[in-house]
Amino acid sequence: MSKINNFYLLLICFLFISGIKSYFKVTQHGIKCGTSLETSCNNIKEAINYYRYYANLPENQNADDYFLFINIVDGTYPAEDNYIEFEGWNVVIDRYGSPNTNITIDGGGLTKPFININNVATNEKTSLLMINNINFVNFNGEFNSFNSIFGNMGIQVLLSFCNFLNSGQSQGLYFTGKAIPPEGIYSIVNGIFAFYTCNFENIIFKNNTFNFNYSYVGIEFSEMKSITVEGSLYNDKLGSNDLSIYNTTFNGINFNGGDNLFIIKSGRFNIGLSRFYNIKSSSTNNYFISTFNNTSFSLKDSESYYNIFSNNFTDFNCNFLNDSQGTIRFNENIISSSQSNIKVFNLINSNITLTNNNINYPNANGLVYCKNSIITIIDDQSESLTIHPICSTCNFVYNGDEICNNDTTNGSNSGETPISSSEHTISSETTISSESKASSSESESTISSENKTSSETTTTTTQSSHINSSNNSVSIPYTLISILFILTTLIYF
Fold it and tell me: What is the pTM for the complete model shown?
């Protein structure tokens, strides 16, 4: 495919003056590009360098509060000329023209992270990056890296309507970020890395895939298929994080390397209204979720740290939950498998409550292994769990019937409770919800002004625009990012 070097960049200031919207075009001395389609920049790197020149001019001290829009025309572009490096700005990258525009960035020759945002030297300037409607192919290694050391959601990276294809084949693909909060405050999430309506296909993930510290990782309305995971898909070993998966489909996931798919220790973790088909593990000792020392692992209640609700796990050919010292609620899920040598729950010192689930393993027995735990099942259609459980030191009640108690042993290996992979002691976080709202009033005024700006200033839409000058803070609560995603992306359709 041919490479077309057209990056259209128009710098627009957007102000409110006595309630009237006013626009003016920035014309500065020095090397410029992107102020019209005819003077378009050669690549993303050139566009960012020009904006850096503009933002550093003495008369533009408030440039960091504006939005830089980079619109790309149809074509395929090499990632080594189009990687993204900036700090303390608000940058939006999207297609130029009609919805049929097809933008592909090829990462085959890239030897560094495609996204690199370093906020260490920018005091309390938030860095916001939105990437919409881009195809990423042939990427390997570390896709992104960010670093922030101050509070107030210092870094936010949001990708929507993007495709990740045929990547990780040589080195694997993984995502990293560190957003350390202010000294002495270690319980807050300070960065965002989120996918909205993105597709991942034919990908090999490595190095625990999502390696973040004090960050929110979100996957909404997306799809992953034909995925190989070497290691874990999520491992909360770096620190407190939030992981949220909402209304997403996983189809054909193979996890290898002797590790569990999700390892959870101290963060928050949500999976809701999602579908998991044909999930396989290379080892009979691996689990879909492994948690350790969680005082509140809830699989339904929004006020709890861990929620897994209303999901469908079909052809689920791996062990499900390995927990130590957790308080767990598990509601309204469907789990089915034809496998025989498999465990659903492996529990030690746990307290688990299941309500309105349907767990069906017709060819298996001994699905529950527990020690010193409490299992309460209410209004469930999960008779498979009651067939030869190993629960010698547990209280196990199924729909009002006592299956095990501290003095009763059901199952052939009553004294054994093999809690495999107990070393996997990690926790993920979650705060995804379909009702998540991003500062919608700010977003709406910004977006509507962008549309109006492009139509009033030029017949060919463009990029860099300003937010309302009264909106100096671009910090976005991490629980409310979805509406911002939707509003920002829909204006390009």
Answer: 0.77
